[in-house]
Write a structure and sequence with these properties.
Elements (H helix, E strand, L loop, with lengths): L17 E12 L4 E9 L10 E4 L8 E4 L3 E5 L7 H6 L5 E5 L4 E10 L3 E6 L4 E5 L3 E5 L2 H7 L12 H4 L7 E4 L5 E7 L4 E7 L2 E4 L2 E3 L22 E5 L5 E2 L7 E2 L4 E7 L8 E10 L1
Antiparallel strand pairs: 1-2, 1-5, 3-4, 5-10, 6-7, 6-10, 7-8, 8-9, 11-20, 12-19, 13-18, 13-20, 14-15, 14-20, 16-17, 16-19
Length: 282
């Protein structure tokens, strides 16, 4: 089981060369914080994403900013606040690309090459290239992006469970390798919401947990320290995460905002599987 923590430091390229590119970007992280700098690349392939880590120069000098990709919600090339229409297009899960021309599409982020070119795989499996100067934003984690931009509207929907994050019957799929999944509700403080959860997730090779988590492991750096690893948790907006587990009794919402669901873990890159959660406001 891997338990990596956020790394900020110098990434040494094994291929032996490094360059700064002219294009700039802001990494909006899944915890809402932001880092801005020039896009950098390393090695003979001139890649920005190396071994699962995205890289950005430090405007103040010194080491680069280096982040696991699953801790970056948005790569923002335009800055400013996205329009409600743009945020409303975001799917509940998966990657999403918006261009300065106004076009947008779901797909998969592949890499940034040479500091000026985005590699993107569309839903047909074709790899496309875009100049970074033509790109507005790359959304890597739509749930966290909606929270970071304080968007309380509904997410776009799709037909396929694996793409939309919506299970049959209107239940929510809570993917174990995503920090937060959209719970499908905007709530107010004092609302009572009930959850009915099924399924099992893996939080590392050979290690699994149900909605109540694996009772053999608790850590103070988990989102909910008092809950075992892998259990179902919730959060409203940017509020404090709270335990849900297999409890079916209504839970009183602690504040106003979008309901988000996740798993109690501090490293999501080695997770797999999903919980299916029926969410109902009383």
């Amino acid at each position: 089981m891997l338990r990596k923590t956020l790394a900020i430091g110098v990434l040494v390229a094994s291929a032996g060369w490094y360059a700064l590119a002219a294009e700039r970007a802001t990494f909006i992280l899944t915890d809402g914080s932001r880092r801005s700098g020039q896009v950098v690349f390393h090695g003979d392939q001139r890649e920005n994403l190396i071994n699962g880590y995205l890289n950005l120069s430090n405007d103040a000098g010194g080491p680069e900013f280096t982040y696991p990709m699953n801790q970056v919600a948005v790569i923002d090339f335009a800055g400013g606040q996205p329009s409600p229409a743009e945020l409303g297009e975001l799917p509940p899960s998966g990657n999403f690309l918006t261009l300065r021309s106004g076009q947008s599409q779901p797909g998969t982020f592949v890499n940034i090459i040479g500091g000026d070119t985005l590699l993107w795989r569309n839903t047909s499996g074709e790899t496309q290239q875009y100049r970074l100067s033509d790109v507005t934003r790359v959304y890597l984690n739509p749930q966290s992006a909606r929270t970071a931009f304080n968007y309380n509207g509904t997410a776009a929907t799709a037909n396929a469970v694996g793409t939309s994050g919506v299970a049959p019957g209107g239940s929510v799929l809570v993917q174990a390798n995503q920090q937060w999944s959209d719970g499908g509700l905007t709530v107010r403080k004092g609302d009572r919401v009930s959850f009915t959860t099924s399924g099992q997730i893996s939080y590392g090779q050979g290690m699994s947990a149900g909605p109540d988590g694996d009772g053999s492991l608790r850590r103070p750096d988990y989102p909910v320290p008092q809950m075992p690893v892998g259990g179902l948790i919730g959060r409203v907006g940017n509020g404090q995460p709270f335990p849900i587990g297999s409890n079916t009794q209504p839970i009183t919402m602690p504040n106003d905002g979008r309901l988000m669901l996740g798993v109690n873990d501090n490293e999501l890159g080695d997770n797999s599987g999903a919980f299916t959660v029926a969410v109902r406001k009383q």
